[in-house]
Amino acid sequence: MNALLQTFSARAGAILVLALALILLPEIAEARSIVEKILGLELFEDSGCKYSDDGSLGWAMCNIVQSLNTVPGVIAVIAYIAGLVFGVRAIFKLKKHVEKPDDVPMEEPIKWGLACGALLSLPFIINVVTVTLVGPQGATNPLEYSEFLGSASSGGLDAVLVNFMTDIWGPAHTLIGAFAYLAALVLTLIALMRIIKDAQEGTKGPMGLGTITTLAIAGLLFSLDDILGIFAQSVFDDNVVTTAPLILYLAGADYSTIMHVTAVASAAIAFFWLIGLVAFIRGWFIIRDVAEGDQQASFMAGATHIIGGALCVNLGPLLNAVQITTGVWLDGVIFT
Q: How many structural domains does the chain have?
């Protein structure tokens, strides 16, 4: 008889979840729209992407970015459906607590109910996390960068390097930003779903260090350009990354040579900018692994990635500071 009742309860719960999902389909669609609009998804619509059918690497990266446009909406739908399931689970947990309070403590339905509310309020949670870290929209200046300068010779190795970086610069920046945004969404879901776990889970429990760190890093990745802009302004008093070199020791050379060298130097700085961006993001994932208790990760490795990546992104201003400090800037390369 008990087995029959359990089977009936399970089926009734499944039917209830399906019915709620059908009833709330308009709300689910609205949640998807809110998630896609809450931060504007600038990273998915960046002007650096080109959608011309030229078959280049930049074109392929932009196609990937364009394909990822629907993923935030899918994640929003998953969060909504999971929230509905958790809500039904909370109701059944409450029912069992009323019937057998010794077997099911009151904290069980409360945890499942909180997880339900958090998942159904995903856009609100995202907004709270980002506003807490970087303030309301427009409160900070996001990272910007100057454009390439110079022109490469036709058919030379400098032309290969410059053409390569010119093609992938904008699309790669957009693709990395899109990855960071999607990773932030997934990390947010992971942190919210841990509400249902027990405190015995340690760092992965509801209030464990790993869970709190996961939610905080999600907020950082949501605001990647703002965080990098804050770092640049804190260290170099400017949120604009300079990639345009002014090569002073070539002042007496002919114009064509100056332009070729300038283009190669600018492309090299841009390449290190992308490497620094990847290292910066990787550093936060290492910090999360440390908070989760991963013995293979170290805090120093994460800090090195974060600081080194941020400095690599700001390589132009950093080189300016080093040359001014050593007194060789009048005969060196100044980035403007």
A: 1
CA–CA gap between residue 68 and residue 104 (Å, rounded): 42
10 φ, ψ (degrees, to nearest 5)? -65, -45
**Two structure tokens written together for 121:** 């309020």
228-282 residue pLDDT tens: 888 888 888 888 777 777 777 666 677 777 777 777 888 888 888 889 999 999 9
Task: State how far the Cα of 293 lies from the Cα of 209, in Å rounded to an integer.
Answer: 9
Whole-prediction pTM value? 0.81
Radius of gyration of the chain (CA): 25
Place of tokens 């999971």: 82
